[in-house]
UniProtKB/TrEMBL annotation:
<feature type="compositionally biased region" description="Polar residues">
    <location>
        <begin position="225"/>
        <end position="251"/>
    </location>
</feature>
<feature type="domain" description="DALR anticodon binding">
    <location>
        <begin position="166"/>
        <end position="339"/>
    </location>
</feature>
<feature type="region of interest" description="Disordered">
    <location>
        <begin position="223"/>
        <end position="272"/>
    </location>
</feature>
<dbReference type="InterPro" id="IPR008909">
    <property type="entry name" value="DALR_anticod-bd"/>
</dbReference>
<dbReference type="InterPro" id="IPR036695">
    <property type="entry name" value="Arg-tRNA-synth_N_sf"/>
</dbReference>
<dbReference type="GO" id="GO:0005737">
    <property type="term" value="C:cytoplasm"/>
</dbReference>
<dbReference type="InterPro" id="IPR005148">
    <property type="entry name" value="Arg-tRNA-synth_N"/>
</dbReference>
<feature type="domain" description="Arginyl tRNA synthetase N-terminal">
    <location>
        <begin position="4"/>
        <end position="87"/>
    </location>
</feature>
<dbReference type="GO" id="GO:0006420">
    <property type="term" value="P:arginyl-tRNA aminoacylation"/>
</dbReference>
<dbReference type="GO" id="GO:0004814">
    <property type="term" value="F:arginine-tRNA ligase activity"/>
</dbReference>
<protein>
    <recommendedName>
        <fullName>Arginine--tRNA ligase</fullName>
    </recommendedName>
</protein>
<dbReference type="Pfam" id="PF03485">
    <property type="entry name" value="Arg_tRNA_synt_N"/>
</dbReference>
<feature type="compositionally biased region" description="Basic and acidic residues">
    <location>
        <begin position="262"/>
        <end position="272"/>
    </location>
</feature>
<dbReference type="Pfam" id="PF05746">
    <property type="entry name" value="DALR_1"/>
</dbReference>
<dbReference type="GO" id="GO:0005524">
    <property type="term" value="F:ATP binding"/>
</dbReference>
Amino acid sequence: MTPEQLHVVLAEAALSTLRPAEDPAPTGTVLRRGGDVAAGDWQSNLPLRLGTREPQSTAESIAEAVASHPDIASVTVTGPGFLRIVLETPALLGTVAQVAAGRHLGDPGPGATLASSDRPTEPDGLGVLDADALRYGSARSRTATALARDVELLRTAAPANPLHRVQHAHATGRRLLRRAAAAGIRVVADEAEHRTPDVTLAPADRQLALRITEAAGVLARATGSAETGTAPITSAATGSQPDGPQPTGRQAGTGRQAGTGRHADTGRRPGESLRSVTAVLEDLAAALTAWSAAERAIVPTLDADITAVHAARCVLAAGATTVLATGLRLLGVTAPERI
């Protein structure tokens, strides 16, 4: 289940519990990724935004309706009316498998990039940057002045360089997948094959899976091709606070599609889609790098058998790598196999 699909489930649950005169899609509704196991997978303030006289009672009714969904493991009401949501592990892993296969990304096709008109005017003195650094730097900078300040940073092949971190994380993911292939582990990009009850994800694995689905949604919204019928999501990576459903390029009269020099999301200021992409790529890159550095067992030792956990972690590596590659391509930047 993607965050966008969870939004739909929440909205339908609200409709089923509210009186006809009440608004099921209020402004300021937020779906936020939980920071740890205790916080759940996702948290929502939907019951508090409905304006009912008893938000906690409303939250309990919505929680009961949401918990009946087969992809939801549990829903807990906390505080005055917040929802703490935990997904079924097979559903979460299955969604990552779909992302690894290229779904839920809103990818407009090979060679397409986000609108270049959203980038700041290039200041003088950028000839020292290669094409990748120039494109990435202009995408993440709000102004030409900010881009000029980042020139020296973008020239270095060091962890301080945000582009280097993202490209290095992609190369790390590809290396992990090559190791898996050499060990005979097949990465299955098929949701059905991951809907088995015997796979248990460690907390770090689960957090990476959630970041992958979150990042995929950001890319889809940036290109204006997010799944229809969904409300915006507050991303822990971008920190944006949406006020209501944003029309996509095909739905809004003034919106245009990615790659045409027009804004895919009419609810955004110029350049915001580009910056949301760089922000979520850097967040996912940091998560993948930390996850791999913690020596997650991607492949078994010589005297051990391949288990469902090894296969699941390969799916996580494939999902993260696919998101990073897609995001870099949308910015017109290369995704190296090796660094």
